[in-house]
Amino acid sequence: MAANTKNSFKFVVVGGGIAGVTCSEQLASQFPSADVALVTAAPLIKAVCNFKQVSKTLEEFDVEEKPSTVLEEKYPNLRVIQSAVEALHAQQHAGHRGQRSYSQSAVASTVRMFENDDREVRMPYRTPTLLTVDGLKVHYEKLCICSGGRPKLLTQDNPNVLGIRDTDSAQEFQKRLSQAKRIVVVGNGGIALELVYEVEGCEVVWAVKDNAIGNTFFDVGAAQFLIPTLNTDKPERAATCKRVRYTIDGQPAIQGPDIATGVDRLGQCRAFEEPGSALGPDWHEGIRLRGAEEVCRRVSVEYETEVKRIYTQQEFLLSPLASQTSGSWPVYVELTNGKTFGCDFIVSATGVVPNTEPFLHGNNFELAEDSGLRVDDHMKTSEPDVYSAGDVCTASWEASHLWQQMRLWTQARQMGWYAGRCMAADVLNETIELDFCFELFSHITKFFNYKVVLLGKFNGQGLGLNQELLVRCSKGLEYVKVVLSGGRMVGAVLIGETDLEETFENLILNQMDLTPYRDELLNPNIDIEDYFD
Ligand SMILES: Cc1cc2nc3c(=O)[nH]c(=O)nc-3n(C[C@H](O)[C@H](O)[C@H](O)COP(=O)(O)OP(=O)(O)OC[C@H]3O[C@@H](n4cnc5c(N)ncnc54)[C@H](O)[C@@H]3O)c2cc1C
Ligand SMILES: NC(=O)C1=CN([C@@H]2O[C@H](COP(=O)(O)OP(=O)(O)OC[C@H]3O[C@@H](n4cnc5c(N)ncnc54)[C@H](OP(=O)(O)O)[C@@H]3O)[C@@H](O)[C@H]2O)C=CC1
C-alpha cells in the first residue's frame, strides 16, 4: 500500500533500473517516515538480490525483474509511479532557496505556469517539479535521475538495424533471429562478445574496428586466448534459468527455455513504447538464440573494418556491387575493407548513449563529452538538489588512478546506493566521503563461458609507455595478465578459474613495490596467496 497519495515527496528517483531501484531502496530504508517516490517508465523494476561481497571491491549479485508492487510492499513509504517523465523544472528550486541565480524571465515564466494551476497555487512553496506523460506533477526536495541509456545505433530508423537493450529489444532480436540465415554483428564490446558466442543456427559475420576481438575488455593476448572457443561446441546448459521473469501484469512468465511462451504472453500485453531497464549478465540464459539453419556456431570475424554503407535490397540491386554478390537478402552491408555482405539483419552492438532526454530542456545540466550528466564526487549534477547515478551519468570527479567508469551493472548499483547516501547526508547536514568502491575498478563477468575478472587499469588505460605486462597463459584453461607501473601492480585480467582475484586485488590496493618478486608473481608453481600472506 502506498503511504503517500499526494504528489509531493522528500525524495524522488527517476528510473526503475538497478541504479534507480537501489537508490530509492536506500532512501526508503534510511528515512522510514519520509515520502519517497520512484518514477519509472517501464512496468517492471530491476532489483538486486543474492548480493555477495566477493572481496574488498569485487561483488556478485543476481538481478530480478519484478512488478513494482513488490517494492511498495517492502517499503510502506515508497510509492512507485509508473509513467515516463516528460519534463523537469529543476530551476524552481533556485528562486525559493537562493542557491543559484537565474534570469528573471526564466523564473517568471515558470511562476506563471504554476499560477494557472489550482493544485500548485495551494502548495506552500514553489517546489521543483517533474511532469509525467500522464499529466502528473511530482514535486521533490531532492531528485536522483537514473534514466539509464539507450543503444547508440549505427543508424536510426532502419528496421533492419537492431540494438539490444531491454526485454522488448531482446525479444525482437530473438524473433528475427529465428527466421535468419545470416546476420552481421557490428561492434566489439560486451554485447557483441556475448552474441557471437551464443547464437547458433545462423551464420554470423562479425565486423570489428580493431585487430582483435573484445577491445572494451581485452587486449590482443586475451583475444587470442578466447578466439579458439568460437570454433568449439558450447557446453550443455542447465535446463532452466534460475531467475523468474515477469510479465507486465505481474505474473511470473518466462522460465528457462520456454521463452517462446513468454514472448507470446509479453507480446499480448505489451502496449507501451517506453524504454525498459537494461538487460544484464544472464539475459541470454534460457533464451533460445537460434537461427533458421541446421548449423552450430558459424562465426567469421572481419577485422579492422567499419561499416561504409548500408543498402536496402532495392538500393543494392541498383548499385554496381550487385553483380559481385550472390543471393538475395533484405539488407546489405558494405564494409571499409571492400567486402559486402547480404544478411537478414544487422545488430548494432556499438555502445550506449545516456538517456538525458527530457531532463535537459529548460535546465542547466552540464554534460560530459559522452553526453552523460556530469556528476561530482557526491553524485550531484550541476542543478541544485538534482543527483544522478548509473548509465545516464558521467563521473566527473578526479577519480582514483585505479578506477574508471564503465557502464556496467555493478557500477549502476554502487552509484545508486552511494547517491542515496549522499542525498541522505545532505538532508542531515552530514559530511560523507567518496565510497571505497570507487577506489579500484573491479568487474566479474563471463565471456565465452570463461569466468572473467577485470581489476584496476586492466588494459593499461592511460598509462602509455609507463607499463610492464606479465602474462601467463594455458591454452583453453586460463589467461592471466598483470599490469605493472613503476614496479607496482595497477591492473589485472584473469580469465578462467585462476583463484587469483583476491590476492591481486590486495596487491593493487596496497601498492606494494613488486620489483623483487616480478619473476615469481605468475609462477604457477608458487602459491602466490601464501607468498604474500
Ligand atoms: C544486453 C546487455 C547485457 C549486459 N550485460 C551486462 C553484464 O553482463 N554485466 C554488467 O555489469 N552489465 C551489463 N550490462 C550493462 C548493465 O545492464 C547496465 O549498465 C545497467 O543495467 C544500467 O542500469 P541503470 O539503472 O543505470 O539503467 P537502466 O537499467 O537502463 O534503467 C533505466 C530506467 O529508467 C527508466 N526511464 C528511462 N527514461 C525514463 C523517463 N523519461 N521517465 C521515467 N523513467 C525512465 C527506464 O524505464 C528504466 O527503468 C548489459 C547491458 C545490456 C544492454
Ligand atoms: N558482460 C558484460 O560485462 C557486458 C556488459 N555490457 C555493457 O552493456 C553496454 C552495451 O554494450 P555494447 O553495445 O557492447 O557497448 P560497449 O561499449 O561494450 O562496446 C561498443 C563497441 O562498439 C564499438 N563501436 C562504437 N561505434 C562504432 C561504430 N560506429 N562502428 C563500429 N564499432 C563501433 C566500440 O569501439 P570503441 O570502444 O573503439 O569505441 C566498442 O567496441 C556497455 O556498457 C557494456 O559494457 C554488455 C554486455 C555484456
Automatic annotation (TrEMBL):
<dbReference type="GO" id="GO:0016491">
    <property type="term" value="F:oxidoreductase activity"/>
</dbReference>
<dbReference type="Pfam" id="PF07992">
    <property type="entry name" value="Pyr_redox_2"/>
</dbReference>
<dbReference type="Pfam" id="PF18267">
    <property type="entry name" value="Rubredoxin_C"/>
</dbReference>
<dbReference type="InterPro" id="IPR016156">
    <property type="entry name" value="FAD/NAD-linked_Rdtase_dimer_sf"/>
</dbReference>
<comment type="function">
    <text>Probable FAD-dependent oxidoreductase; involved in the cellular oxidative stress response. Required for normal sarcomere structure and muscle fiber integrity.</text>
</comment>
<dbReference type="InterPro" id="IPR036188">
    <property type="entry name" value="FAD/NAD-bd_sf"/>
</dbReference>
<feature type="domain" description="FAD/NAD(P)-binding">
    <location>
        <begin position="10"/>
        <end position="198"/>
    </location>
</feature>
<keyword id="KW-0560">Oxidoreductase</keyword>
<dbReference type="InterPro" id="IPR050260">
    <property type="entry name" value="FAD-bd_OxRdtase"/>
</dbReference>
<protein>
    <recommendedName>
        <fullName>Pyridine nucleotide-disulfide oxidoreductase domain-containing protein 1</fullName>
    </recommendedName>
</protein>
<dbReference type="InterPro" id="IPR041575">
    <property type="entry name" value="Rubredoxin_C"/>
</dbReference>
<feature type="domain" description="FAD/NAD(P)-binding">
    <location>
        <begin position="299"/>
        <end position="416"/>
    </location>
</feature>
<comment type="similarity">
    <text>Belongs to the class-I pyridine nucleotide-disulfide oxidoreductase family. PYROXD1 subfamily.</text>
</comment>
<keyword id="KW-0274">FAD</keyword>
<keyword id="KW-0285">Flavoprotein</keyword>
<feature type="domain" description="NADH-rubredoxin oxidoreductase C-terminal">
    <location>
        <begin position="445"/>
        <end position="511"/>
    </location>
</feature>
<dbReference type="InterPro" id="IPR023753">
    <property type="entry name" value="FAD/NAD-binding_dom"/>
</dbReference>
